[in-house]
Amino acid sequence: MSELHFILTIAAPTHCAILAFMSDARQQTHDAQAAGLCADCLHSRRIESAHGSVFILCNLSLSDPRFPKYPRLPVLSCDGYKKKP
Known about the structure:
- The protein is an alpha+beta fold.
- It has a domain at 4-62.
- It has 1 helix and 4 strands, in the order ββαββ.
- The strands form 2 sheets. It has a two-stranded antiparallel ribbon with strand order 1-2.
């Protein structure tokens, strides 16, 4: 059985809200697109809060100050990017 996920998007200028329903497969595709390079980077780690918020942690930030701990997504270019095997 597939789970449904709800995504609420609010457009700032008009304050218009859009509620979308997504299956697990579509949610994973959406997450990957939203994260950009971080979606399949060896150095990224997905963090989920107790409230269900999802963040991408860059492990390179722990040893190199050039990399932000929680990069602004989507990441389109990164000197530390290394594709997961």
